[in-house]
Amino acid sequence: MIIPWQEIEAQTLDNLIESFVLREGTDYGEHERSLEQKVADVKRQLQRGEAVLVWSELHETVNIMPRGQFHD
After folding, report:
1. Three-state DSSP class for 66?
2. CA torsion angle for 60, 13, 53, 29 (degrees, to 10)?
3. Distance between terminal CA atoms of the chain?
C-alpha cells in the first residue's frame, strides 16, 4: 500500500529517508555523496512522484521504491 508522503510528519519522513539511504547496498553512483545530499535526493524523488513510500503488511515495514517497481 502506498503511503502519501505528504501525510507523514516532516521529522518522521526525514528519519524514514535517512534509514533508507543508510542501508547497505544502496548505490548512488560513481561519486560519493553526503548523507544530507542523499536524503535531499530521495525527498525530491518523492515530491516528483518518481519514488513512493510503501507499507508492507506482510513485513510490517515501510520502504521507499521507484514508482515503476511498485505493483498494486
Report:
1. strand
2. -110
3. 7
